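Continuing the series of single-chain predictions for the mutant panel. This is the parent chain; the variants come on the following pages.
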Amino acid sequence: MNLEGRDFLTLRDFTKEEILYLLDLAADYKEKKKAGIPVDEYKGKNVALIFEKTSTRTRCAFEVAAHDLGMGTTYLDPSGSQIGKKESIPDTARVLGRMYDGIEYRGFGQDIVEELAKYADVPVWNGLTNEYHPTQMLADMLTIREHFGKLEGIKLVYMGDARFNMGNSLMVACAKLGMHFTACTTKKYFPNEELVNACREYARESGATITLTEDAMAGTQDADVIYTDVWVSMGEPDEVWEERIRELSPYKVTKTIMENAGEKAIFLHCLPAFHDLKTKIGKEMGERFQITDMEVTDEVFESPQSKVFDEAENRMHTIKAVMAATLRKSKCS
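Parent structure:
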C-alpha cells in the first residue's frame, strides 16, 4: 500500500483497504512503542502544526508522534499565524510547503484545509474541521478493533448532535468499513441528507447500514459501541447552551442506555467530556441549569465499559501512522 504524498482530509477520500492499512500500521507502531523499539526513520523532516482551534489531545498526539518518528515540529496557535488574516491561505500553503515536509490544520471550515492541500506541495492532514475529524476516526476504529477483534458487523450508535464533524465522520467511517451506524437524536440534529445518501452508497459496497432514529431505547438496543460528544462545540455562542441541554438531554448516555445496549457494549467519547462539574464551563453550566452532567453521566464515564482513555492514547499511534504513510521519502520523489 503506497499512500506517499497523499493528503489526509476526510475518510471519504480513502478506500476500506487504505483505512485498514493505516490501522494496521498504527497497531504496529503502538506495539513498537510499548516495546521501546525506536521508529525514528524520519529524522531531518519537519512538520507545521496550525491550530486555529486549540486542543490538548490533537496537539500532544501530533507532537509526540512526530518526535517518535524523529521529526521536528512548529506549533502555530491562533495568534502565531497570519493565515487568512494578513496572508491568504494559498500564500500560506506555498510558504509552509517550501519549509516543511507536512502541514497539519485544526480549525474551522473544511474548505480551509482543502485549500491548504490544493496549494501546498506537501501532505496536509486534517486535525479537525467543522465538517470532519478523520484522525479521531482512526483512533476510534483502532480502539473498537482492539476491544472486539473486528470492525465488520459492529453496531455503533452516536447520540447527541450528529450534524457536524463527529456525527459526519463516524457515519463515513462505519459506512466504509462495513459497520452499522445509528444516529440517535431528534430530527433537527440528524446529519445532512446529502452525506447520508453518500454514506448509504458506501454502505451498499461494504455491507454496512445507516439508521437515523429519535427513539433512544430502540436505537441503542444491542449496540456494541455507544458514542457521544459535547453538545456545544468550540466557537459556538453561549445562547445555544440552554437549547442544546433542553433538546439533547433525552439522548444523554446513562446507565440505563448502557444496560439497554448490553454488557458487551463499550462507551467512547472524543473528549473533553462534561461528565461532572470539575471544569470551569461544567461548573458554570451546572449552576446555571441545575445539572450535574451533560452528554454522559459520571457513572458511565468512570465505568469499566468506558474506553475513552484507550481511545485518547490511540490518537497518537494513529496520527503517527498517518504521517509516516503519507510523508514523501524525499521532496523530489
